[in-house]
Amino acid sequence: MTQPKIEFRPIILAGGTGTRFWPLSRGARPKQVLVLDGRRSMIQQTVERLAPLAEAESFWVITSKLLSSTIAEQLSWLPSAQILSEPAGRNTAPAAGLAAFLLERESPDTILGMFPADHVIGDEPGFIKTIAHALQIAAAGENVVVLGVRPTRPETGYGYIETGLEMEDCFFCVRPSTEKPNLALAKEFLAAGNYSWNSGIFIWSARTLANAIREYLPQTAPLLEKIAAAFGTPDFESVFADLYPLCESVSIDVAVLEPRSAKGEGASNLFCLPSNFGWNDLGSWTTLYDHTLASGEHTDADNNVVQTAGSVAINASGNYVYSPKKFVAMVGVSGLVVVETDDGILITTRNNSQDVGKVVKHLASSGRSDLT
What we know:
Layout: E1 8-14, H1 42-50, E2 60-64, H2 65-74, E3 83-86, H3 92-104, E4 111-116, E5 120-121, H4 124-139, E6 144-149, E7 160-166, E8 172-178, H5 183-192, E9 195-205, H6 206-216, H7 221-230, H8 236-243, H9 252-261, E10 270-275, E11 279-280, H10 285-295, E12 305-314, E13 320-331, E14 336-340, E15 345-349, H11 357-365
Helix pairs in contact: 3-6, 3-7, 3-9, 7-8
């Protein structure tokens, strides 16, 4: 018997600031609209890889006012009304919740996929197959599916998901998750074998997510419902501007995943689908170095990744250098990250690139808005 067609709506979350990619990433041009991998921007690649599963009119993008015009230009084939500009950044739970309330009104059984706009996927056919499997799980009941990536190293920059009981069709119930552990704990997780990296990709029906927001964010849910009710009316922009900043600023992981998992494996209807499709969230210059090195582009025999107008490496290895207008000489150095733009230069190490966001905080507190 042919299975009924599942209506799928991808929700692209594109409001992040990408501070760890300073000085290339700025408030008005964060990493999701930059070309860091290939010839297309991160958000263009995100939408294009999902195209086999959804028509253009099925996509929704939630971003910031600073980025809305750039994203509308880069995604010119999407309906402009479905690119929503948040009046204020409130993290991922209100953004995802708003999409759920909007779509619950017209089709509560529609399956929503929440996708960050800045991921890299190496095996796109494998990715599509995994998403199709997740859609089947989500459509089977009040189920929440999170894609977990099999860890390859003790990574401290990612959240982790502990998997529990294995089910017949190869997905797992989820036990409480842990956000960004220290190195010792990350090593324990890797050795245990039943932990996955939290990819930040979630699949659920509009009804399931809307009900979860009602249950776990009871003060925010009525605000989002009022905003959704105003969509398509002349009052929408004013209602959105007035009510959205009043929503709680919290991630979907903390707001929904953690309390739901606390119900226990048999009652949470929360599932992790272990995935292996070459996922990378390009969260720092180090992860970009790793990804570029693996691709073989812009690399030399000493594992330097160099994007310059010319370079020479003498007793130098494992460096990442971005200076597209200049010749760069590396002599006796290893493990460095050097990034030059017209108005800024970053010098750090690959081991410390997770802290680059602190530079942006310093610049903001110092009144250097010209550099942020």
